[in-house]
Design goal:
Blueprint: H1 2-10, E1 20-25, E2 28-35, E3 46-50, H2 64-67, E4 73-76, H3 93-106, E5 113-118, H4 120-131, E6 136-142, H5 151-160, H6 165-176, H7 187-201, H8 205-208, E7 217-222, H9 238-257, E8 264-269, H10 276-279, H11 281-294
Parallel strand pairs: 3-4, 3-5, 5-6, 6-7, 7-8
Antiparallel strand pairs: 1-2, 2-4
Keywords: Hydrolase, Signal
Protein name: Alpha/beta hydrolase
GO molecular function: monoacylglycerol lipase activity
Length: about 300
């Protein structure tokens, strides 16, 4: 708290914005990072970053400061993650969207927004866009948890690589229906994982019923298979699974882009893994800057 306060004092010329601080929203403290608002003009979009599961806002340090040189940026830790206060509440897409909206309102950060979501953050990005479509200027998904996936889609991948039906049923049960105890010490990350499992059980029903805003939509996809040899499954060919699943995801995400008349892009980076914004930061920065240029 003292560090955050010191940073705010260094930016005393900006009464609302400082680079890093804690913000009280509905009685809970959220850790936020804001930068680049000094020269924001009316209707200039703000880049809003949603972290991966259990990840803190520092995960964006490869891209966020460079982007802040030309556009305002905002990042934060969701409840119970890193420096944000723990809140014993299921982090549904609605809860997270309402929290983010309240934080932005408290900081007087007005729309339009371009949301950038990595991994689990892609699910929360999709949720916010569905609840507040009029606030949106663009959507960017960086190797997101696949909110377009169904159980049938998942099973079909294993059929294509020759896994027997009995084994498919067993693996699906383990993935979706095995009881996972609540981890009160790490409630933020563990509750996000439990919620992701619940979403998968329903084929992401909470999300698919939400509207898709008519804005440009970008997907970044990592093509590098990163699972270490000692962690690969003994039940199926993990390399083949990764290849088939990636191709299947690409086809579904192409269809998602076409839900908007504003177009977009699907970008496959063959030498990048799940953390594309760290593996190829310059490319991600350049693409986002191009997206911002086109939105002018």
């Amino acid at each position: 708290m003292k560090t955050a306060l010191l940073v705010c004092l260094l930016f005393i010329s900006l009464p609302v914005f400082c680079q890093e601080k804690l913000v009280d929203v509905n009685g809970h403290q959220f850790h936020v990072y804001v930068k680049g608002f000094e020269n924001r003009k009316p209707n200039d979009p703000v880049l809003i970053f949603e972290n991966g599961l259990g990840m803190g806002l520092g995960n964006w340090n490869t891209v966020i400061d460079e982007l802040a040189k030309t556009t305002p940026v905002f990042a934060y830790d969701r409840a119970g993650v890193e420096k944000s206060e723990k809140v014993y509440q299921t982090p549904t897409v609605q809860v997270v969207a309402e929290n983010l909206k309240a934080i932005l309102k408290t900081l007087k950060i007005s729309p339009p927004y371009i949301l950038v979501g990595h991994s689990m953050g892609g699910i929360y990005t999709r949720g916010f866009a569905g609840f507040y479509p009029d606030d949106m200027a663009g959507l960017v998904f960086i190797d997101p948890a696949d909110f377009t996936e169904t159980k049938d889609d998942w099973n079909a991948i294993f059929r294509r690589i020759g896994v027997p039906e009995k084994k498919i049923d067993e693996m699906l049960y383990d993935r979706l229906y095995k009881t996972v105890p609540v981890d009160s010490a790490r409630f933020g990350p563990s509750s996000e994982l439990r919620y992701l499992t619940a979403l998968r059980r329903t084929d992401f029903a909470e999300i698919t019923r939400l509207p898709v805003p008519n804005v440009p939509i970008y997907f970044f996809i990592g093509g590098k298979f990163e699972v270490p040899a000692d962690r690969r499954s003994s039940d199926y060919n993990h390399d083949a699974f990764f290849e088939v699943r990636t191709n299947v995801n690409i086809e579904r995400w192409k269809k998602f882009i076409y839900l908007s008349s504003k177009g977009g892009a699907l970008i496959y980076l063959s030498n990048s893994g799940h953390y594309l914004h760290r593996d190829d930061a310059d490319f991600v920065i350049g693409t986002l800057k191009m997206m911002l240029k086109r939105s002018e």
